[in-house]
Queue: 2 jobs
Job 1
Amino acid sequence: MTRIYNFAPGPAALPQEVLTQAAAEMLDWHGSGLSVMEMSHRGREFMSILETAQRDLRELLAVPGDYRILFMQGGAIAQNAIVPMNLVGRKPQPATVDFINTGQWSIKSIAEARKYATVNVAASSEASKFSSIPPRETWRLTPDAAYVHVCTNETIGGVEYHFVPDVGDVPLVADMSSHILSRVIDVSKYDVIYGGAQKNIGPAGLTMVIVREDLLGHALSICPSAFDWKVVAENESMYNTPPTYSIYIAGLVFQWLKRQGGVAAIEQRNIAKASLLYDYLDSTDFYGNPVAKDCRSRMNVPFSLHDASLNDTFLAGAKEHGLLQLKGHKSVGGMRASIYNAMPIEGVRALVDYLKEFEKQNG
Amino acid sequence: MTRIYNFAPGPAALPQEVLTQAAAEMLDWHGSGLSVMEMSHRGREFMSILETAQRDLRELLAVPGDYRILFMQGGAIAQNAIVPMNLVGRKPQPATVDFINTGQWSIKSIAEARKYATVNVAASSEASKFSSIPPRETWRLTPDAAYVHVCTNETIGGVEYHFVPDVGDVPLVADMSSHILSRVIDVSKYDVIYGGAQKNIGPAGLTMVIVREDLLGHALSICPSAFDWKVVAENESMYNTPPTYSIYIAGLVFQWLKRQGGVAAIEQRNIAKASLLYDYLDSTDFYGNPVAKDCRSRMNVPFSLHDASLNDTFLAGAKEHGLLQLKGHKSVGGMRASIYNAMPIEGVRALVDYLKEFEKQNG
């Protein structure tokens, strides 16, 4: 069996320990005689898996007691509609929502929110081709907005917030899909945090929502019951049948993360991994990274070859070295290395070694 | 390792061959060096998995060329909102939709549709405690309805349509969650077929929608893009990241089903399994089944003990015999054996043997 280093932006690499355990338990979970996939979601066995996963996630992120953790479906793209359907009803209609536009994922969120609200793009880094985060003091926020939306890590552009914006009393909503659990965050500084699991946690088909309890109960009448956060919360994420196997895998990832020392410990490793790669990219003109240094993502590192005609040769060589999925998103071109929690530093070292070798041969 | 017979209503038993293959491929799918869970959904490997699954499902159900197969998320409960959001826009608002109420799943669909349409319950078997299907000639349909909705197998009540209702030119929408792929159907007689995968196919978190192409493109403006069938179809079920691992498992189940001889062959086995169980239940007064003989479900067999005070003893003894999840739904009480495609006839024989033994000891 050949294992490789997988730099895919999501779905993405999972810890090998997690996969090994999942394989071993596939036909018989803990002597139950059942696969997790075959368990009734309301049975004792799966309920314990769900509760443990929720408890571990709460512990890992130090989620305060007045926040609910919801396991849902549809990914961040579905939440782009579900968030406004749940929050704009707190204000007279049509409500205004503020967005900070920092890249492709912000743009998607903005477009979808227009179905349910008046959208104010309070700040945008589009003029700089999304290579930065607009400084907080430049944001033109609406005083009575239903909420302010930020995407705290842009997977495609490789731009990450390294600060928590103060937006006063207006609820702050953050799409954290691609860096959740990669760094310590103060959940109490946000009002809603959401993300698809398929980047930094694991299986596609699971969405996590962390929401302050007092924001529940304001869904628009046209919000499907399965996506009304209050209904989901009251039914302990069991209003519709949850994606049971994905929750099980996410739970194994949470346990793996605890064995790594938790989020603070993995953050240090993520800093080391990202520095290793950025330091090398900055040391040569053969490669380039377009993002301002104070907002570079530790998770998604876009880079370009000075001579773009070498792109295909670079990717073919990378594949030969077992370094996969380095092609950048079609909207920006070039390369991208996604180095989520599950990417070991050895993978980043192997990538840097290859970057050096390729430069030597082609520089 | 102990394997047991799992009569759960969903999530439910999977073919052991499928689980064995999934375990073997967990860390390295076909020499790719990747788990299916780690694959980019837009990569060559996963695309081939998705396309094969779609093609096999099309073949198994003989889906005509003018129908699209969509892989979505949220289960039948989400589709209860998604169906009207996609179909009522074909008519002037507010549109009327016709429902046939045959049990708990119909009731859920009806309640949710009221958010988006005027609902006409064209027929109901509530007066008979949902022990039958209202005969077609009693349905009071709305001539210009946006669609007629039926639940062709009520998982809780154990009531199944053994006929296709003719509703003229009005689109016929069927929730087939709990018996899809259990019997040959003429897809062309329906306009929309949907179902969660977690009953007769496998993994929770995957929803299948089969829709006639000309019904696409009428979603209400408030329909989230991720749930607009046209958007999903145009993006080949990739508008949001699909539940990749669930699609892979469903694909393995489709291949297993083809090895069994396809739907016509499995239908014969399902008839044999259901007959074995119903014949015994009918042969004694110790047990009872409330459902009219012409609409008994081959998939979900509710039954009661004449003396309900023996229920707990019955369930405890069943568990000792490796017969799990026989407790009926709380809304109807008693027992229920769900005997989906993946339940071998040996499991039904073991259940009937236990029924006999228990009767002998307690009759």
Job 2
Amino acid sequence: MTTGENHIGIKRSAKGGKTYTTFNPKLNIENEQIFTEASSEEINQAAELAAEAFKSFSKKSGLEKANFLRAIADEIIAMGDDLIAMYQSETGLPEGRAKGERGRTIGQLSSFATMLEEGSWVAATIDTADLDRKPIPKQDIRKMLVPLGPVVVFGASNFPFAYSTAGGDTASALAAGCPVICKSHPMHAGTGEMVSDAIIRAAQKTNMPNGVFSNLNSSGIEVGIELVTHPDVKAVGFTGSIQGGRALYNIAAQRDEPIPVFAEMGSVNPVVLLPKAIQNRGEALAKTYAGSITLGSGQFCTNPGLILGIKSDSLTDFISTLSEEIVKLEPSCMLHPNIIGNYEKNKQIAIQQEGLTVNADFQDSVAVNYARQAIVTVNGLTFLNNTTLHQEVFGPFSMLVVCKDANELKLVISHLEGQLTGTILGEEKELQEFPELIAALQSRVGRIIFNGVPTGVEVCPAMLHGGPYPASTDSRFTAVGVHAVNRWVRPFSFQSWPNKLLPKELTDENPLGIIRLVNGKNSKDKI
Amino acid sequence: MTTGENHIGIKRSAKGGKTYTTFNPKLNIENEQIFTEASSEEINQAAELAAEAFKSFSKKSGLEKANFLRAIADEIIAMGDDLIAMYQSETGLPEGRAKGERGRTIGQLSSFATMLEEGSWVAATIDTADLDRKPIPKQDIRKMLVPLGPVVVFGASNFPFAYSTAGGDTASALAAGCPVICKSHPMHAGTGEMVSDAIIRAAQKTNMPNGVFSNLNSSGIEVGIELVTHPDVKAVGFTGSIQGGRALYNIAAQRDEPIPVFAEMGSVNPVVLLPKAIQNRGEALAKTYAGSITLGSGQFCTNPGLILGIKSDSLTDFISTLSEEIVKLEPSCMLHPNIIGNYEKNKQIAIQQEGLTVNADFQDSVAVNYARQAIVTVNGLTFLNNTTLHQEVFGPFSMLVVCKDANELKLVISHLEGQLTGTILGEEKELQEFPELIAALQSRVGRIIFNGVPTGVEVCPAMLHGGPYPASTDSRFTAVGVHAVNRWVRPFSFQSWPNKLLPKELTDENPLGIIRLVNGKNSKDKI
């Protein structure tokens, strides 16, 4: 089912000297397959092959690329339960989650295929000539989005399907017309290899050039660094830690030719409790949040790790209920011994900070690699003065910050680092009572939620998954939804180019029937 | 008319200890006004004031911002000939150029105002709820573009109006809702001060917050560095040299919170001569290019500094004609003694390279600060092996590269650094005869031109002014045209937000009547 080799386009290759295995956290054993890390030679081969593939792949029509993406989805589905079993053996996640995430991945591929079939995403913009204009004639200029070149995608530990090998970064880069080199995540190398098989079969069935996709194994940081510094690589997609994402960003910025890195990184996803909401329905909210904090062992980038409120009896009751409810929930298995190791370490660092109270910390014995959920509280001033408390504790952990009044709450919000999401739990009229507080939260986040939970990132065009640094390295882009394609494209202008030699998207006849901005007006008409 | 002080919002301030003057290159004398460089304290004041102004300016409606931009244009026009005289005294450029550039600047402000009045530029995207969806309900999500925060704009030496104080970067940043701090260009500090006056009067007349615009004098690099490292600054626009732009990019990338820098930098704007075109109309092309190379003393970022062709008798004739024609043209005054000093220095560096032939070098005596145009040739192999020859010589200078065949020409093109423009001079059917050569050129440039000249950057939505590094630091954006606004905005999502509290752009009623992507379809309808 797997071989442990790298995919350099359609070729299998395992020339490196470094090997590793993946780990089954539920069984607490190493899995059998031995994976061979990509060598420098193989990294170079994959990058050069991608650059060569780019020449023809960048010219593929929207329909051809859509067929490729739909074929990837079909090939993934065709692997059936074997793939689900592999996923579970490398993550400890339950079957329902595996199948749900596979569905999300198929949905993402399909949404980009639909975007390509419709075709207007290229933002065709046409200004026709006016050769009689004085004092100088106006030339015909036509612009559309074109792909950047080979993209390196770093798989994420917590989403082997949806944010890894054939996840949103890969789907959006392929949709753009960019070949992808996946830096396989070492914790789910087998899942990565199987999904890579699916992509490469799909590429062959739909006549895509060899090198449109490669998958390189890696157990440490070297393969990633070599990829990001390779001159044939033109952009990078990453989902993971702040430390990892920032390191790649720095490397890319220091190249002779800097390249864009979109890294979706850390976030504690602050949740703001407004007074009347917790007075009116604090108990229900506490129960909802006990579930949200522990969902998937808290291994979501949108996990609510920080809850902010104003000192009151209702808030005290909320904290009590949340603390009681959360320890009633069964702990669950984390992805890998390293992940649970970091969780326990970071939880202890937080707990040892001065002025912090532990309100809940699951104490019963649990199976190995299972995470004990915890709730802690701290007052506003202590939080403001200690940035260690602002750090994400990746896992089923949440910190409540009890502010003395609305002003302190606003101050806490405005001192937060950038976040993927911010949530307001309030009554509708409270939104109007605290405009500055809400404006402060808006300035720190990519998505603001009213009366919901931040977990659950809908795949739809209106989704912004990203946000101010360090939620992402560039708040001007999203990692989720069809607009994620904008990370991998550049506008390109043709001036006075013969009509019949223009790309179809830009010819007078508009044969694709797409929406274009023609002389300042949106139109599907011919010119 | 000028005071030499900085504008910190509406306040005048000159607390720094460093002063300087501007220079009249035509008269070869220093101008009288003494300018005081901004102190660290003043830089900090301007940045903090901009951050405070952002809170209300970011909430201004499109119509309010449009009124502001139109008022800036009116105030600039109202200064009449005084402003034109100041511009000429600081640049040595003729009155026609000054007025033409002022017209372009007014046109840019007006085009962003029109964009704001229409309103669809915010890319409103709405996915409505489906609370009955299984297995999990779909929440209502609505996304639009929001401003990043205060933007620092670096004025360009060669365009005191169109790419400086109230130029494209400022106009696009203000349109986005971002306050602007202009780092005044030292060569035209008086023009900058007058235009700043106009902007600040316009801000007051249209009720914009104090701090929406500041203008800081600087004679060296310190003011710019302090601005780019200031935590309240959220983005940077720059037009100038590769060295300067890259230095700012590096500084911004090394901040705790990295910020985007859009720097439009060097370009030699390769022009490719295809064989039949120069056979059929080489003489006419040579005359056209003699004019294009010397236009404005070659002080345009789109100046054609590199002409590439295949060895032939026609090419030899083209070089002869170009060389003869170019020395018939009258030399003109460059912007500043530093600029002509660099021109002469860089021209000599090029000329001294091995294997280079000087075909034309204007020899007659010229007035001080007037540039002597030159044409040089080199063969393809020499050019490929010596990257010093790839460097821009900013001024009326162009290098012809004579390749032995089409393959060598393709090789030369594919080894070029990124460029703003690439031009093909050819017959229409030659475009089909050399597809790989044209693809290679497309991959290196932001705009490709058929049978024209690269000088003259039309201000229109279809214009891409930027390109692969080092033409710009981020090929995904343009510096010219209304889409330049995309550099200063980020998408922001509201989830389950009460309809009446949403920005007007996103409410069900669509009161602004803008085009929105609603459940995947473009529509101006209510929901």
